Amino acid sequence: MSLHVFAAFVTPLGTAANNRGLTEGNITSLQKLVWNGQVHTTVSAESIRFALRRRLNEQEPCNRTYDDASRANEWKDAAFSAWSGKSKEKTYIDDDLLGFMSAEGAKQEKEKGTAKVRRAVLEVSRAVSLTPWSGDVTFNAASPGATPSAQKKGSNPVPYGTEMHATRYQYGVALTPEALRVPARAVTALNQLCALGPVAGNHGRFLFDFSPESVVFRLTQEAAPRILYAFEPSSRAGGVELAALLRKVKSGDVPAKELVLGGQVVEELGAEEREVLSGAELHAGVVAACRAACKRLEVRKK
């Protein structure tokens, strides 16, 4: 049976805010959704994938890279020729993990269009704020001439507003290593997800740290993740807990032996919770937990 790898991540506390605009009366808004009946802010899976691709490119060449100077994507193999049935070319890690799609319409009437498609083996969920958004907004004023494109006439400051959210974000991933052209890339993916840095957040000059503060891995032969969005705010200000996950372990839906936990959430476990998680690997740090999860993958490969 196939081994599936699932992970739930939660970031440290940070301040999210969107790119600010300098148009009078404009409010730069955060993306939002209703979650458990309340408004939460959210960060797209595409943003996380974009940040991950940059990390992957530091480990081995990627097919798609972003050029900061030209502010455009560049392709090494835009035709994905390495994925044709008879090709012996080496595939790129980002295509292998994150998939691709290249569609072309029919050139003549009655002809069919073509599409080259590979489903992402590494699936990433949308990140959701751990706490509801209370509506925090700042009102500011940019001085005349602050940028070459702003306030070209007059000498009055330019007012603008920005939505903000001081929160943590949580998201999850799913991965089946044997579905990869190079299964060892699963280890690379987990390591880079645990070392993720900036993802979306504020204007390019600010930073929201997406490196996980706590993580839960589940390595299992069951296809259902059951651990995504496992984190909840705890009664301690700024803390996190795993009440729903503990209930699933207690009920037998998630065997404890399939779990590897790391980070602050482990530090906050009480004696009773540790008893429920008996059989799971518990680590004080995220990096140690990631190493343990990767080791399970490598042991299985042997």
Please tally the helical runs, counting DSSP H or I stretches of 4 or more residues: 7
Largest sheet properties: 9 strands, mixed
Mean of the pLDDT scores? 90
Terminal Cα separation, in Å? 15 Å
Shape summary: flat
Sequence stretches where pLDDT stays below 50 over 5 or more residues: none
Strand content: 25-35%
Number of strands: 19
Computed CA radius of gyration, to the nearest angstrom: 22 Å
Helix and strand sequence: EEEEEHEEHEEEEEEEHEEEHEHHEH
Pfam families: DevR (PF01905)
Protein name: Type I-B CRISPR-associated protein Cas7/Cst2/DevR
Organism: Myxococcus xanthus
Keywords: Antiviral defense
Q: Characteristics of this structure?
A:
about 300 residues, alpha+beta, nine-stranded mixed β-sheet, four-stranded mixed β-sheet, flat
Account of the 3D structure:
With 302 residues, this protein is of the alpha+beta class. Helix content is 21%, strand content 29%. It contains seven helices and 19 strands. The protein has helices spanning 45-57, 93-98, 185-193, 243-251, 264-267, 271-276, 286-301, and strands spanning 4-10, 14-17, 27-28, 32-35, 38-43, 64-67, 72-75, 100-104, 114-118, 123-124, 127-129, 137-142, 158-167, 169-175, 214-220, 232-233, 240-241, 259-263, 281-283. Strands 1, 4, 5, 10, 11, 14, 15, 18 and 19 form a nine-stranded mixed sheet that branches. Strands 2, 3, 12 and 13 form a four-stranded mixed sheet that branches. It has a two-stranded antiparallel sheet with strand order 6-7. The longest helix has 16 residues, at 286-301. The model has no long low-confidence stretch (mean pLDDT 90).
